[in-house]
Design a protein that fits this description.
disordered C terminus, ABC transporter transmembrane region fold, alpha/beta, mitochondrion, 4-stranded antiparallel β-sheet, ATP binding, lysosome, ATP-binding, elongated, 834 residues
């Protein structure tokens, strides 16, 4: 058995931290476990009390079962046991057992026992907070401190008091135990960031959703956007972007990409040689080298600075050249994404477009497209180069100076990146909320302006302005939280960088004063470390920009994920128009499950015939027209045009409707067939005299035109298209009686020898139809010609009678009004005559 000796080894002292080129083992073995145990006891106790008094027990069904969590537990227990095993092994060696070895083993084991208890506690209880997700800061910082402490061993690489030489069995065992600690603490910290044993979403949100699921009997889709990490689904998001980073089909752009990558490598090499030549200049000036040698060194240094620029990759010739060449590639990526998204939006069903908010969609597309530009540039030319610069710097400092300098760079980088990730993930919710409030404000403004007439009708200007101001105030509140959290992150980063620069500069200055380094070596270190910290300082910005880009693109990705309700078959061909025969065969359709709109609809429109659809509002007339356009897919039966099932042909080939103007454009932009010109002119001349003929701008959504003018322009455009099949959905509902008759005469000429389906409420406009279908509750109640339906005395006859009575009543009211006006004028006339 070992004999208990002095607290420290005779060769070292607790008061002396640095001995023989490394840390004093006694000092290290006392300081590290003391810090870890103090941290775990103090903060762990506070953590335990908070969770016990203010937390709630998690229901087992919400706690995920994970093998990674078992690994997390196993590593924690392994680390605790290795300290005990280490003490037992040292005791059995029969040599003198120093006090610091017992302190190191006992305190470390107690500290890890506390960590295991906290890990178990967090799996059983949770604080009642909506935003709680993942491990607490106490556990994460404990694992981070433990891993950082094991990295301090690298500082003593050359010290004979440590076990790096592996010359004896004792040193080999010590090294093996250190490897277990190093790999275990590193793995625990990485697993802690993932938190595999805890719910991925806030526990209270899961509880609330579960209660709503039980109440409504349905699953809620998606989760709270406030709680999801922006890196969730990173592979899927990056997979969508990857095809746009490599410009397929363009050899020139591909060559530009490869050349830009080569320029990146050149920049990395320049960043290494600039401080080296700066050091050479200082040393040559100090040593009194020849003018020729000094001139050559200075010229090379200036050339390198010219290529590098003011800082690492900032405004240098190489950087500017790369940025210039990358413009074409960036434009390609942005263009392809925007065009694809625009095409995808047009491929979505009418059901989706009826439920969308225009302002929200436009803001999502705008932010998403702009974020792609920054995302690709930062990932390709900022993140990867910065990581490469840091790795190269660590290797260079260790090989040229000592492990101390490499450790300083590594620790600063580790702490910097760790805190940047933690704080940035924490402030993600504020950025998301700011985007949501921004969308709400812009959507409110767009909706209000698009409905300008309605606002004026109800004298609601002040109400709309108040609502918009309230939305802006909510946005500014979220914006303040976002900017305040950003300021906190920047200050934290500055503290870490300043501490690392101070430690490295003092150490290098000490070696220069001890004549171990030359003055040029200090210049080399100072130049290189500042040059390194420049991209490291920007690394936090890169991370924030990439994270913000992912946040901004989330809405755009959701648009991409919208399923196309109406899709083409794999082998779908073009719709071949022959004669214009339209067939509905046992068609069933419903907008919402459980409420059928069309029930077993069957009819045939022969080429050149006119079929009218009439019925009460909500009977399914307009739905039939929409199904012909394939705005929706039928749930039963089929629709054929010239014998072709329209569900088997491409959606892009259809028929031309006669509907209200929606695009801000000229009234008539071109004439494809000159024989229509006279007929179009007759329709256009019916528009109010203040319009400027064919060059009239209709305005957004046709706001510059009245309701009647919109219908006239729509009819004119339909005439110019000369479609084989014409669908008229209340084509003259906004026209007066006289104008309607003129337009009907013009339409009769256009519709001659063309298949026409008319939806009308004014029965007088469809008297001459070859067939009239009377819809009632989604089914065809009656069919036939006008005279036949009147003779039946059914629904159609009743509708006809009511419309005739209404017209007679209106005529009688007009006559009575004229008689009253005449009576009022007679006394005046008689008095004047008298």
């Amino acid at each position: 058995m070992a004999v208990l000796g002095n607290y420290c080894d005779p060769r070292t002292s607790l008061a002396q931290a640095w001995v023989q080129g490394g840390f004093s083992p006694c000092f290290y073995a006392t300081l590290v476990p003391t810090v870890l145990l103090t941290f775990s006891l103090f903060f762990g106790t506070f953590h335990w009390v908070c969770y016990q008094h203010y937390g709630t027990a998690m229901e087992p069904k919400f706690v995920p079962r994970s093998r990674l969590y078992r690994l997390q537990q196993g590593l924690s227990v392994l680390l605790l046991l290795q300290f005990l095993v280490g003490m037992i092994w040292r005791a059995e060696q029969g040599t003198e057992l120093h006090g610091h070895v017992l302190v190191y083993g006992c305190l470390s084991a107690l500290g890890w026992a506390c960590a295991i208890a906290l890990l178990h506690l967090e799996r059983r209880r949770v604080l009642v907070q909506d935003r709680t997700r993942g491990h607490s800061a106490v556990l994460l910082l404990f694992w981070a401190l433990a891993f950082s402490a094991e990295n301090l061993a690298f500082v003593s690489w050359y010290s004979p008091l440590w076990w790096w030489g592996l010359e004896s069995t004792d040193q080999q065992v010590e090294f093996a135990l250190w490897m277990v600690r190093y790999l275990g603490t590193g793995a625990l910290f990485l697993l802690g960031l993932k938190a595999p044993g805890l719910p991925k979403r806030p526990y209270m949100l899961l509880i609330n959703e579960d209660e709503r699921d039980l109440e409504h009997g349905q699953l809620l889709l998606g989760g709270s956007p406030q709680s999801q990490s922006t890196w969730q689904g990173f592979r899927k998001k990056f997979g969508l972007l990857l095809p746009y980073m490599w410009p397929r089909g363009s050899v020139f752009l591909q060559a530009l990409v490869l050349f830009c990558v080569c320029l990146l490598g050149v920049e990395r090499a320049i960043n290494v040689f600039v401080p080296i030549y700066y050091k050479n200049i200082v040393n040559e000036l100090s040593d009194g080298s020849s003018w020729k040698t000094l001139t050559t060194t200075v010229c090379i240094y200036v050339l390198l600075k010219f290529l590098q620029g003011g800082g690492a990759g900032a405004s240098g010739f190489v950087s500017n050249l790369r940025s210039f060449l990358w413009i074409r590639v960036q434009q390609y990526s942005s263009r392809v994404v925007q065009v694809r998204l625009f095409a995808h939006l047009h491929s979505l069903s009418l059901r989706w477009h009826l439920g969308r908010r225009t302002g929200d969609v436009l803001r999502s597309v705008d932010r998403g497209a702009s974020s792609i530009d920054s995302l690709l540039s930062y990932i390709a030319f900022s993140i990867f180069p910065t990581i490469a610069d840091i790795v190269i710097a660590i290797i260079y400092f260790i090989s040229y100076f000592s492990a101390w300098f490499g450790l300083i760079v590594f620790v600063c980088m580790f702490l910097y990146l760790t805190l940047t990730v933690i704080i940035t993930e924490w402030r993600t919710k504020y950025r998301r909320d700011m985007n949501a409030q921004d969308n709400a404000a812009k959507s409110k403004a767009v909706d209000s302006l698009l409905n300008f007439e309605t606002v004026k009708y109800y004298n609601a200007e002040s109400y709309e302005v108040g609502c918009f101001e309230e939305a802006v105030l909510k946005y500014q509140s979220s914006e303040w939280k976002t900017n305040a959290s950003l300021a906190l992150l920047n200050q934290t980063q500055n503290v870490i960088i300043g501490a690392g620069l101070l430690a490295g500069s003092l150490l290098c200055a000490y070696f220069v004063s001890e004549k171990k380094f030359q003055v040029g070596d200090y210049i080399l270190f100072a130049t290189y470390i500042i040059q390194l910290y420049t991209p490291l300082n920007w690394f936090g910005t890169y991370y924030r920009v990439i994270q913000r880009s992912f946040i901004d693109m989330e809405s755009m990705f959701k648009l991409f994920e919208e399923e196309e309700e109406v899709k083409d078959d794999i082998n779908a061909g073009n719709l071949q128009f022959k004669a214009g025969k339209v067939e509905f065969e046992n068609v069933h359709f419903s907008y919402v499950d459980g409420k059928e709109i069309l029930k077993d609809i069957s009819f045939t429109v022969m080429p050149g015939q006119t079929v009218a659809l009439v019925g009460q509002s909500g009977s399914g007339k307009s739905t039939i027209i929409r199904l012909l356009f394939r705005f929706y897919s039928v749930q039963g039966g089929c629709i054929r045009i010239d014998g072709q099932d329209i569900s088997k042909v491409r959606v892009t080939h259809g028929v031309i409707p006669c509907q209200i103007v929606t695009l801000s454009d000229l009234i008539v932009t071109d004439f494809n067939e000159t024989w229509h010109a006279d007929l179009v002119t007759k329709v256009i001349l019916l528009i109010h005299h203040h319009l400027a003929g064919y060059d009239t701008q209709v305005g957004e959504r046709g706001l510059k035109l009245s309701g009647g003018e919109k219908q006239r322009v729509a009819i004119a455009r339909t005439i110019l298209k000369a479609p084989q099949i014409i669908l008229l959905d209340e084509a003259t509902s906004s026209l007066d009686t006289k104008t309607e008759r003129n337009i009907q005469a013009s339409l009769a000429k256009v519709c001659a020898n063309r298949t026409t389906i008319v939806v009308a409420h004014r029965l007088s406009t469809i008297i001459a139809a070859d067939q009239i279908l009377v819809l009632h509750d989604g089914a065809i109640a009656e069919r036939g010609r006008h005279e036949d339906l009147l003779d039946k005395g059914g629904l159609y006859a009743d509708m006809w009678l009511k419309q005739q009575q209404a017209q007679d009543s209106d005529s009688a009211s007009d006559s009575e009004t004229k008689d009253q006006q005449t009576e009022k004028l007679q006394p005046v006339t008689g008095h004047s005559s008298h």
